[in-house]
């Protein structure tokens, strides 16, 4: 599996986010910009974690506003929603748009989530052997296993949070 590296230092400027929002037919708002920035900086984040991060910039933002923004950005293809078994939904930005069809590796011990590039280099998952008459729009591949830290026993300092993300203590 080839990991996809995300460099938070390469966070698009607000002007880039604004252009992407307009191209998706959405108005540019400070709430949308803050959510996009938060998720680009910390991918695979839950709505509650996004709320906590965005409140640093916008203390007046409500829980409902964050959920509304997450839903509108996901519907517009600017975010991807990850539904992992037994965990709250998580979100990440879609740097390549809807055509960005990378996968995820999840540690079943600590909850760590990593992006994994498609093994073939393009989106073959969107062309199933039998589509049963459906137009396939998204294919989610989730690899589950135990990360190197958990396997070596060095993750004893990690404890999963309520959202399933491992934190070092």
Automatic annotation (TrEMBL):
Assigned keywords, A-Z: Cytoplasm, DNA-binding, Iron, Metal-binding, Repressor, Transcription, Transcription regulation, Zinc
Pfam families in alphabetical order: FUR (PF01475)
Amino acids binding Zn(2+): 107, 110, 147, 150
Localization annotation: Cytoplasm
InterPro entries assigned to the protein according to its UniProt record, in alphabetical order: FUR (IPR002481), Fur_C (IPR043135), WH-like_DNA-bd_sf (IPR036388), WH_DNA-bd_sf (IPR036390)
GO biological process, one term: regulation of secondary metabolite biosynthetic process
UniProt protein name: Fur family transcriptional regulator, ferric uptake regulator
């Amino acid at each position: 599996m080839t990991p996809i590296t995300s460099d938070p230092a390469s966070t698009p400027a607000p002007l880039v986010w604004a252009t992407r929002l307009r191209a998706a037919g959405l108005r540019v708002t400070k709430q949308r910009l803050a959510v996009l920035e938060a998720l680009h900086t910390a991918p695979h984040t839950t709505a509650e974690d996004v709320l906590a991060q965005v409140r640093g910039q916008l203390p007046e933002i409500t829980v409902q506003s964050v959920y509304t923004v997450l839903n509108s950005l996901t519907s517009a293809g600017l975010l991807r929603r990850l539904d992992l078994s037994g965990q709250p939904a998580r979100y990440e930005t879609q740097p390549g748009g809807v055509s960005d069809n990378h996968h995820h590796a999840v540690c079943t011990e600590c909850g760590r989530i990593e992006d994994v590039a498609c093994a073939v280099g393009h989106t073959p998952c969107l062309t199933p052997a039998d589509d049963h008459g459906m137009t396939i729009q998204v294919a989610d591949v989730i690899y589950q296993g135990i990360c190197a830290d958990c396997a070596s026993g060095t993750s004893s300092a990690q404890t999963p949070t309520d959202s399933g993300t491992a934190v070092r203590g």
